[in-house]
Amino acid sequence: KNQVEQSPQSLIILEGKNCTLQCNYTVSPFSNLRWYKQDTGRGPVSLTIMTFSENTKSNGRYTATLDADTKQSSLHITASQLSDSASYICVVSAKAGTALIFGKGTTLSVSS
Amino acid sequence: NAGVTQTPKFRILKIGQSMTLQCTQDMNHNYMYWYRQDPGMGLKLIYYSVGAGITDKGEVPNGYNVSRSTTEDFPLRLELAAPSQTSVYFCASTHRSAGGHEQYFGPGTRLTVT
Question: Under an 8 A CB cutoff, do B99 and A97 touch?
Answer without folding.
Answer: yes
